[in-house]
Amino acid sequence: MGNQGDQTGWRDRNHALWDERVDIHAVSASYNIDGFLKGDDVLMDFEPGEIGDVTGKRLVHLQCHMGQETLTWLRRGASRVVGLDFSESAIGRARELAAELGFSSTEAAFTVADLYDAPNALPETEFDVVYVSMGSINWLPDIGRWARIVADLLIPGGILYLNEFHPVTHVLDEATGTRFVHDYITSQAMVREAPGTYTDSDRSAPTVHNTAIEWIHSLGDVLSALAVAGLRLEFLHEHDRTVFRHFANFERGADGWWGPPPGQPRIPLLYSLKASKPLNLSTGITCGSSLY
Ligand SMILES: C[S@@+](CC[C@H](N)C(=O)[O-])C[C@H]1O[C@@H](n2cnc3c(N)ncnc32)[C@H](O)[C@@H]1O
């Protein structure tokens, strides 16, 4: 079965979908904004250790949604965080959260822009860390262009930390996640009708903008795009647990994470990677690109 669909107007249609869902997410148990304001840490347990010490670092969070992860890095010692998202509603919420937490505009800034406009839209373009988290790159058609933007936003020695849903999770059957039902290797958009949102277990929230246009970026494509952009892979970890009931028969473990029921093969559900920008780009060791 192919993934093909009409990707015309993908940006506007995805923007409408995301913008409409922010108010639903803002009052949801999943995003638990009250808990966040009281100090809850929204990162996954492995993220702080993998990213390393962010004390004093300047961090940009691409596709930051309502900014909770962004602001958590500030709480964890970053000197400045900048979040970018194309949803005005999401960025509005992020700015409110930053203000409620008492952060100044020197410490936290949020920009409304399409990811591909980031170099022109962000208040500055030199960061120690680019952070991207779950459910982001699947909304972008051109992973090579994304990787070049990431590389350009990093200072030499800076790092990208990406914690993303594993691409195989986008192509397996919804009931059990054991059968391939879409193409894994494809450049075609995956177009689907997705009423409601993931913060409702039964996706019953009333929504009108429901067309989701996404792309499957295989691990090979992501790693190759980063290499071509001049970044060096530090690690790639695949995780067999995830943050929600990704497939209908998944069960929640005692640790609060979700995975297949006992006896069902364990598959990669998330991956996390760190890639660094070489200090001396003139050596060209990792350069396959004319950019550097
Ligand atoms: C699932 S969230 C990822 C952030 C975080 N992991 C979370 O769940 O809060 C995906 C975000 O990507 C944003 N987004 C999607 N396509 C985008 C684009 N082309 N440019 C900028 N932001 C985009 C959406 O508005 C949404 O806030």
How would you portray this structure in words?
This protein has 292 residues and is an alpha/beta fold. It has a single domain, classed as Vaccinia Virus protein VP39 (Rossmann fold, 3-Layer(aba) Sandwich). It has eight helices and eleven strands. The chain has a seven-stranded mixed sheet with strand order 3-2-1-4-5-11-8, with helices on both faces. The chain is globular and about 45 Å long. The relative contact order is 0.16. The site of S-adenosylmethionine has 18 residues, from helix 1.
Write the layout of secondary structure elements.
Layout: H1 10-26, H2 33-37, H3 47-51, E1 58-62, H4 68-75, E2 80-85, H5 88-100, E3 108-112, H6 118-121, E4 127-133, H7 143-153, E5 154-165, E6 190-193, E7 211-214, H8 219-228, E8 232-239, E9 251-252, E10 258-259, E11 270-276
Parallel strand pairs: 1-2, 1-4, 2-3, 4-5
Antiparallel strand pairs: 5-11, 6-7, 8-11, 9-10
Helix pairs in contact: 1-5, 7-8
Bound molecules: S-adenosylmethionine.
Strand content: 15-25%
Question: What ligands does this structure carry?
Answer: S-adenosylmethionine
Within CATH, the superfamily carries the name Vaccinia Virus protein VP39
Biggest sheet character: 7 strands, mixed
Task: Give the gist of this structure.
With about 290 residues, this protein is an alpha/beta fold. The protein has a single domain (about 10-285), classed as Vaccinia Virus protein VP39 (Rossmann fold), CATH 3.40.50.
